[in-house]
Amino acid sequence: MRRPAAPSWGWVAPAIILLVLVSSSLAQVPAGAAAGGEAADGRSPEQWLQIVQQAARRLDYAGTMVYQQGSEVRMSKIVHVFDGKVSHERLQPMDGRPREFIRRADEVKCLIPEARRVVVERRGRAEAFPALGAAATAELLRHYSVKIVGRERVGGFDCQVLEIQPLQPDRYGYRLWVDRATGLMLRTQTLNGRGDVLEQMAFADVRIGGVDHEQLKPSWSTEGWKVDETAHRPIDLREQGWRLLPPAGFKPLFAVRRPMASGQALQAVYSDGLASLSVFIEPASASSADDALPQRGPINAYARRVGDAVVTVVGEVPADTARAVAQAAERVGR
Amino acid sequence: MNPDRINPSAGAAPPDGDDAGNCAQRLSCLLDGELDSDECRSLVERLRRDREACRKWELFNCVGDAMRSADVAAWHSGRFVARVSAALQQEPTVLAPVAASRSASRRWLLPGAGMAAAAVVLIVVGLPSRQAVSPESMAIRAPAPTVASAATPASIERSPRLERYLAAHRELAEPGVMPHSTSYVRTSGAMSLEEGR
Q: Is A253 in Cβ contact with B173 (below 8 Å)?
């Protein structure tokens, strides 16, 4: 029954390769795909936005995230778990000094092992409120258009590609690749008016569901470490004698007094649901002058002297927008 | 191997030098954004398993950082950074601007050229690891530095002042389209409190 070996080897290797390819692609199909994946067609772009937002908050996933900005590439391990009430996240940057960021709802603990120090950042809101929430979507569409531009495979997942374009050139556009089965965003790009990619994030690998909660635990025991909390107190800008004019659709999120390197500063934060900008107001020094700070990917900053203060606008907005907000800042009588 | 050696040609390539060199070249390509998504994935997969590749990745980043800003490079091992900086100063010809006529493609070439120059500097300095990147593999990328200008594009220079604002902004800003954690990756892990001290 022995067959001659030589001719059979010709197809064995390709067959093995084919088998490996087929089995590995099968292994990457998410659990939910077979069950409800087909119902995905017929969803409006707006519905997709809401699915993305829900998925980002409620899905358990773990993977490696690659972030690129210009010539810089950074990789991080990320674990995300939703406990039924709030989301938990652990981020481990793989480059630079060892750091870990452990988030629970709106509180982020930043672990600095070489200093045996934990910095606790707290936004002061029950849950970091969803950027793409249902009510926010309608508001969003007053300043952006959203459309489905295609269907692509990313990291082995069948993805819907969405494009969010600003109606005015005073903000950026975005392209999203969303897993059709689960709604998890697997790749995101921020685009300027010319269509250049200013920054992008993509999962190099990700497992959706079945995440061991143990993976949320930090690498180091922080027992005995020094704990610092960022302190900011709410203020009323008007009472402080300032009037700011953010771009249309940017709503105030916070106005606080906080410590900065220069001493105490006022910080006002605005968001249109997708992009945010902060306005810092600090006492001016002798050398303070109007100038644009170097651009970092989508981040622009512009500083302007107003009387005895320096107003610095920082945010994920085009340079012209940052400058316009700085130039519109004014002292009001008090 | 003496980690302090500065001699570029010291030591033959290790037995798996070819693989190590190939890996280094791919890492360099990854930094330059020259890999397609499949190649990226396989390389990231390797970085997860291969400690040596991880070390190289960190080194490459360190060299890139040293070329951009001493402050940022100081995050890495101090002695190694000092040697990288010294080697950079001793290698003016490597970094000298030559091809002004290629200005049309400058914007795209510069970041890549920067990393290629970094790769060359790595050879000059010598890797403080057990396996040296084989000079042969680097030679392929060596011609690119002739395009590199002495000036680094402003967009990749890091301003400590901007970092401080970014950290404070990140703390209170909306996550937006990017995942919440992206803002932490964006700011190199700087913290508003930390920067102020």
A: yes
